[in-house]
Amino acid sequence: MLETTRLTRRRHLVSMDSLVTQAYDLHVKRISGGGVTMTDVTTTIQDLYSQGDMLGRVLAFLKSKGIDAEHPSYEDLHVCDQMHARGVDATREHAEHAEICSGMHVLEVGCGIGGASRFLAKELGCRVTGIDLTQECVDVAQELTLRCGLKEAIDFRQADATHMPFGDAVFNHVWSHNVTMNIQDKEKLALEIARVLKSGGRYSCWELSLGIGKQPFYPLPWASDASSSFLATPDEMVAALERGGLKLVRRIDLNEAYLAYLDDVSDRAQHGEPPTKVDPQALKDRADFLIRVQNCGRSAQEGRLVEHLIIAEKAR
To answer: Is CATH 3.40.50.720 the right assignment for the domain spanning 2-314?
Structure first.
């Protein structure tokens, strides 16, 4: 059965070779045309996640699904508000592993357009603060949260995760989901997280990490090339967190579920079927985003990328 699954994955990857080549060629032309400033990592990251009219695209997508875009429920937004693989299913799984409880004050680092923050506030009864490096993501997060009636439970602001605008010992829990791949200084991130956490508070870090030591195939959903992608191995990430003052509680391997998700994406693309839920990045340029996801698949299949969740704790 395992061998059959592997063969199926390989067939899916092979079937996408033509699309991969075409999209990659387009990507190279864009880069060579000067569209990305490689010397400024922050600007490069912000440019990747900005769309110019992200809110308009999100609202149009909601309407295309028969959703009242003016007054959506927070569940309605799940069709396009989770900026990571497996959508709200992964968000829910993350919350369960992290043991998030009602009444906690949770900081989401890299909140995107607020999908996980709204889930934590509405479904788990948390007070949430979300930060993101990209101002447009913050603006869209605020507007969508206002429209679904959760404005009072969540505070969004633009900020750098390595220079957080908060006092010491503010939060019960810090959460990040597929964010650390864009953060170069992992130890500085850990120091800031430890600083803003209360005594005994925890950090849950769901991320993609470097697997067998070889670089993944680019472009990827979080980076067009290695200049803004800062992958660490799982052991390196744990070591950085511990140097920053956080102690490992447990690490959870998520790779099988991730590979199964990538298989589903490939299968749907092969048969011309739209996904049931989309990452908001795909609303900007679906063909470009698909090549990025396919490169994730190739990289994960070869062991270049692994997905895992780290739970770490600040000393009491």
So the answer is: no
pLDDT digits 0-9 by tens, 195-243: 999 999 999 999 999 998 789 999 999 999 999 999 999 999 999 999 9
Domain boundaries, given as residue ranges, for the chain: 2-314
Interatomic CA distance for residues 38 and 225, integer angstroms = 9
d(CA 264, CA 297): 11
Q: How far apart are CA 169 and CA 196, in angstroms?
A: 5
Which pTM was predicted?
A: 0.86
The helix (run of H) or strand (run of E) holding residue 197 is strand 197-210
User: Exposed (0-12), middle (13-18) or buried (19+): which is 261, by Cβ within 10 Å?
Assistant: buried
Query: In terms of Cα–Cα distance, which of 145, 122, 156, 140 is closest to 60?
Result: 140
Backbone angles phi, psi at 163, to 5 degrees: -145, 70
Peptide bond into 221 cis (omega under 30): no
Q: Tens digits of per-residue pLDDT, 232-247? A: 999 999 999 999 999 9
Q: For 263-296, what is each residue's pLDDT tens digit?
A: 887 788 788 877 777 899 999 898 899 899 999 9
- Sequence-distant (6+) residues with CB within 8 A of 128 are 105, 106, 107, 108, 117, 120, 121, 153, 154, 155
